[in-house]
Amino acid sequence: MDERILIVDDEKDMLVLLKRIIEEKTNHIVETEYDPLKVVELLRKHQFNIIITDLKMPKMDGMAILDRVKNIQPYAIVVIMTAYATIETAIEAIRKGAFDYISKPFRKERILMTIDKAMEWQKLTQENITLRNSLKQKKGFPPIIGSSPSIMSITKMIAQVAKSTATVLISGESGTGKELVAKAIHYHSNRKNKPFITVNCTAMPEQIMESELFGHVKGSFTGAWKDKRGIVQEADQGTLFLDEIGELNMAMQAKLLRLLQEGEYKPVGGLTIKQVDIRFVVATNQDLKKLIEAKQFREDLYYRLNVINLHLPPLRDRKEDISILAHHFLKKFNFLNDKKISDIAPEAISALMSKSWPGNIRELENCIERGVILCRSDTIKIPDILPQEPVAHTSPLFDHNIYTLPFKEAKEIIIKSFHNKYINWILQQNNGNISKAAEQAELQRQYLHRLIKEENINTEIFK
Ligand SMILES: Nc1ncnc2c1ncn2[C@@H]1O[C@H](COP(=O)(O)OP(=O)(O)OP(=O)(O)O)[C@@H](O)[C@H]1O
Ligand SMILES: [Mg+2]
Predict the structure, then answer these.
(1) Are 238 and 359 contained in the same domain?
(2) Spans of the chain, pLDDT less than 50
(3) Could you say which DSSP state residue 51 is in?
(4) Contact call for residues 50 and 75 (beta carbons, < 8 A)
(5) What residues does 344 pair with on adjacent strands?
(6) Domain Sigma-54 factor interaction spans what residues (predicted)?
(7) Cβ atoms of residues 304 and 261 within 8 Å
(8) Which pLDDT does position 390 carry in this prediction?
(9) What's the CA gap between 178 and 123, in Å, rounded?
(10) Are strands 343-344 and 379-380 parallel, antiparallel or unpaired?
(11) What CATH number is attached to the domain comprising 210?
(12) Which ligand 1 atom is the nearest neighbour of the CA of 312?
């Protein structure tokens, strides 16, 4: 990418000279401006790597330019030049964030060297910023959101168990946050600067699993053309998260038991026993006790794993968390999609709370993501998150309790219910277009309109 330099000086000759010097010796794009009052506008238009500015200018001085640059383009580098060099002004400029200070008249080499140094410095700081951000992502982990008593007690448990090295068994339905909790345990532990490694026990066939976990020595099987370190060794000093532990086959269960009991393992084809120091966290959405009864899971391994049990309740049992989670995901997906949706409508929250969420928090997260993407206003409304499900016309119009009511009352309820279901259906078929719906239903438009009003149906949600 070409670097861009802006030179500001009220002496036009100086601008021409500097531009020529820089363009002769570098590939940088040089722009010049003799009116300091126009600098702000330029800074808003283009990103500059370096701004070289004169100090004394009639309308606005170099210090003020430095201020503007720091506000508008904090990563741009400012170099100040002046014929009135005093040590005081130099110090003042550097203190305010200038990169360097050049006294006029200067030699060609001096200016070129300063530019080189500035570019180099900028590259380094940029790399540093990227590095810091990626470290932040690795080190930090998404917060555990929720204020229900069950989530509160889980967060408390995490804090308590994190500092120990005891094995933790996390159970719960799919999407309840098992992996999130496993990470939280690791990042709250003294091992937080060591690796956190996840192994999904379903994903790998038996032989591959063994060599992936424990590594192998060269020549131990066809294709083992050199020694390979296993995941277990990579996780030494850190935390190993074994996900879907209920899927682990019996042979691997025996090997895992040894690793848990003694901290020992043998690479495939190896003769020497290796020792590691690993904290284990395992997760399952199966009932391990049932697997033990079915002789698919070793009982001794179960007791080794189940030192501390954290059970994550399904979302339907902690509905009070739905609103706070939904708002949390709104923020997340606003950020990821560069959107500025400010809220979720109260009726949309009520609708979310009335659902049963078989896919738990993951399902809610996907639902809000969809809402953020579809939403065209500043508030997420019901149709953005819960698209109208087709009204089944085979569904019974009324249940048998209706017969216990007096005839007139029962008839009114049934007619009302019929109106409501029919109108919803016909509007949905016609994307909320009342004229088209009336035509299809062979009704007068005005009559349909009146029914819609009576039933208090919002046609917008079908659009
Ligand atoms: N309490 C919570 N606060 C915020 N986000 C959560 C919470 N619980 C779960 N999530 C989010 O929901 C999603 C699913 O969570 P996670 O992957 O940890 O579930 P899981 O129990 O491991 O699911 P599975 O059994 O399907 O693997 C993730 O994106 C996670 O960050
Ligand atoms: Mg998981």
Answers:
(1) no
(2) 135-138, 389-397
(3) E
(4) no
(5) 380
(6) 144-373
(7) yes
(8) 43
(9) 40
(10) parallel
(11) 3.40.50.300
(12) 21
Tally of structural domains, the chain = 4
What pLDDT does residue 388 have?
Answer: 55
**Residue 308 forms beta bridges with which residues?**
168
Given this model, what pLDDT does residue 138 score?
46
Confirm or reject: Cβ of 362 under 6 Å from ligand 1. Answer: yes
In whole angstroms, what is the distance from residue 461 CA to residue 140 CA? 39
Q: Is residue 395 part of a domain?
A: no
pTM of the shown model: 0.59
Q: Is the CB of 324 under 6 A from ligand 1?
A: no
Beta pairing partners, 240: 197, 280
Q: Which two tokens stand for residue 317?
A: 């049992």
For residue 217, what pLDDT is reported?
Answer: 87
Give the per-residue pLDDT at 418: 84
Within this chain, do residues 273 and 417 fall inside the same structural domain, yes or no?
Answer: no
Angle at 119 between CA 116 and CA 125, to 5 degrees: 140
User: Closest Cα to atom 8, ligand 1: which residue?
Assistant: 177
Residue 458: domain span: 400-462
**CA pair distance 313, 148, nearest whole angstrom:** 11
User: Whole-angstrom Cα distance, residue 243 to residue 278?
Assistant: 15
pLDDT at 182: 96
Give the CA angle between residues 364, 370, 373 to the nearest 5°: 145
Last residue of a domain, one of 385, 413, 445: 385
Residues in the chain: 463
Pocket flag, ligand 1, residue 315 (CB < 6 Å): no
Would you state the pLDDT for residue 419? 87
Measured from the alpha carbon of residue 178, the closest ligand is 1
pLDDT, tens only, 46-95: 889 999 999 989 889 999 999 889 888 877 899 998 876 666 777 778 77
Query: In 389-404, which positions are buried (b, 16+ CB within 10 angstroms) versus exposed (e)?
Result: eebeeeeeeeeeeeee
State the chain's maximal CA–CA distance in angstroms: 105
Q: Looking at residue 106, what is its pLDDT?
A: 85
- Residue found under tokens 């939904």: 326
pLDDT at 203: 64
Identify the pLDDT of residue 376: 87
